[in-house]
Design a protein that fits this description.
Helices cover 12% and strands 24% of the residues. It is of the alpha+beta class. The protein has 2 domains: 41 residues, no CATH class; 110 residues, Lyase, Ornithine Decarboxylase, Chain A, domain 1 (Beta Barrel). Strands 3-11-8-9 form a 4-stranded antiparallel β-sheet, with no helix packed on it. It has a 3-stranded antiparallel β-sheet with strand order 4-7-10, with no helix packed on it.
């Protein structure tokens, strides 16, 4: 028997060599994620899931202004804070507060302050940002493996931890 890692370790799907097992239960592979870095060359997998949202608010801040619960983020200078309508109740790891980043308009933007139940805030400085701008939390352009490492967890926890509050869009 083998899970995703076992399946890749006992086969070479890239060259068509089958696994040397009689029962498999691929899990992580179904999301297009390699279970370990040393198995990346065993199969060409493409991410099957992207967590995205849109900017819901933009506010100006001055140097030293505190953002978020406990004021853990202090604005390093004049700039703007973009608010996202997603939080830990939706599956965004609380541990990404003040250390994670997202893709805003396709560019990295640091998470500013703690992740709250319903919101994430970003310090965007003077970069262009408007209400409605697209944001990727993981997936397309921002591998879930990188986000999981920053959060101190595993990819699978992020992939299966998205709550029922988050709308699903399935594309064929």
């Amino acid at each position: 028997m083998a899970n995703s890692a076992g399946l890749l370790a006992t086969s070479d799907l890239a060259s068509g060599l089958p696994a040397q097992v009689n029962a498999v239960r691929p899990g992580l592979m179904l999301y297009g994620v390699h279970p370990a870095a040393h198995l990346r060359d065993r199969a060409a997998l493409a991410p099957a899931m992207t967590l995205r949202t849109r900017v819901s608010n933009v506010r100006h801040v001055r140097p030293g202004d505190a953002v978020g619960y406990g004021g853990t983020f202090r604005a390093p200078g004049r700039g703007r804070i973009a608010t996202l309508p997603i939080g830990y109740a939706d599956g965004v790891p609380w541990s990404l507060g003040d250390r994670g980043s997202v893709l805003l308009r396709g560019r990295p933007a640091p998470i500013a302050g703690r992740i709250s139940m319903d919101l994430v805030t970003l310090f965007v400085g003077d970069e262009p940002v408007e209400i409605g701008d697209p944001v990727v939390l993981f997936g397309e352009g921002l591998p879930v493996e990188e986000v999981a490492e920053t959060a101190g967890t595993i990819s699978y926890e992020l992939l299966v931890g998205i709550s029922g509050r988050v709308p699903r869009v399935v594309r064929a």
